[in-house]
Amino acid sequence: MNVSALQKARYGYTPKLPASLSRDLANIALKPGAPTEAVGDQEELKRIFKHIYGKPVITFEAGSNETIGRPLTVGVILSGGQAPGGHNVIAGLYDGLKKGNPGSKLYGLLGGPSGLIENKTLVLTDSIIDQYRNTGGFDIIGSGRTKIETPEQFAGAWETAKKLGLNAVVVIGGDDSNTNAALLAEYFLDKGSDIHVIGCPKTIDGDLKNQHIEASFGFDTAVKTYSELIGNIQRDANSAKKYWHFIKLMGRAASHITLECALQTQPNICLVSEELEAKKWSLQQVVDYICDSIVKRAENKENFGVVLIPEGLVEFIPEMKQLITELNDILAVHEKTLLSIEGFKEQIDFLGPKLSPASHEVLRRLPQSIAKELLMDRDPHGNVQVSLIETEKLLITMTQKRLEELKEQGVYKGKFSALGHFFGYEGRCAFPSNFDADYGYALGFSAFVLIASGQTGYISSVKNLVAPADQWIAGGVPFTMMMNMEQRHGSKKPVIKKALVELEGAPFKAFGADRDVWAVKTSFLYPGAIQYYGPPEVCDQPTKTLQLEHPKK
Length: 553
Ligand code: FBP
What we know:
Rossmann fold; binds 1,6-di-O-phosphono-beta-D-fructofuranose; 15% strand; Arc Repressor Mutant, subunit A
């Protein structure tokens, strides 16, 4: 196969494993902690997850493990958006299985959860795995966002699992996919079967984390890729001194990506959705905040700058959030009718009586292109597809308008020329950084140990991530520990609680301490490209978020 020089070199990279996973397999024992409770709605969740609720957190320690060498047949699913390190999770799982027993078999379930429902599979072999080690992308088996939801879909999953003779299914996914994995684990147990389900925390968004899951894999590489691009744009802006760049960054709900990129690059403005929601800012207040920096910089003859915008912003502006919540509920029932109506005005008229008067008014006042984007299809989990909403353009248009008013009032004397960018897909399939290559591999290997030790209802976990990899602590965290009940698709559903940016957390505080200076004085940092080879201080540094949230002891 014809591959790039870097790809060839990366095939030869050996991911670093925690000491607890490097020892002889028969000497990896499971140490359970105390039983756990869900983060909310405990009684309801106990009823829904009769079998898997309340399991203890598990860590791996030295001690004997008698079941680990038996042959196993496992199916693996890549679910949701791509995240660098996914191929290494599969490689870690595969290597663990083969080390445990060369007769073990790993099926790739093709195209996401639908591969399990529809029995679309690929038997993974040494030669397949070796072509994907330490590479980005999910192309080894493909991904998808299908949710296993209806009785027919669960029955399909059950049939496939029986036909393939699966002992376990590993779901590599974000909060929604791992919620689905929890339901599947419960379903299999309800059927009286011993097919086990283990999850792995994936998402560039970084919003699947808690005290035991310090980060999801993919975040590290994605933020480093975006930060490189932002730094390059900042250097261009500082050279040409003529453009304001409005850069929207992926992260469907939480602003972790945007915040981390701000810590790495020190732009003039970084909007953090969670803060705007807490302050109950309107869209106009956000625009006024941006204009304030533009006006002050213009006074210093600096008619250029960079604004970072989290992708999920619109869902956190209270008036927009209310509108989107109402639209979600309406679309859950009337989506087909709405889509059959021709003409945008007619669609708004149809929605009018179903929306509250305030939300109807917000929808009417939005630029048509943005309003249309809000009406587009939801994803199978009922989420607005925020990556398709052009918030950067909305903010440029509104900023332009406000600056014209300020010019008329004699407050602003600068020149405003703006460019919009969206960095999202650029970062999701990059070659995984050394951190994500190691972390992904360790998560996959840890998933194998959980399965081989007869566990189900767990998400694979590897923590102590700011320490060198051999000191990482591997184990499993029960799905139900991370869950609560939330409104989805018009009704209450069990879900893994999304970890949003905490305004009292160390990363936001570090940003808050400096941002007023950055807003006026050019303070750009240029992080450069991810380095795969070289000194550890250049190649193996975890994100600033991780370092601030888990300072080295
Ligand atoms: P996951 O939560 O599935 O990891 O996906 C995250 C994400 O990359 C978001 O940042 C983005 O909004 C979304 O996927 C885009 O979805 P799609 O790949 O379907 O366009």
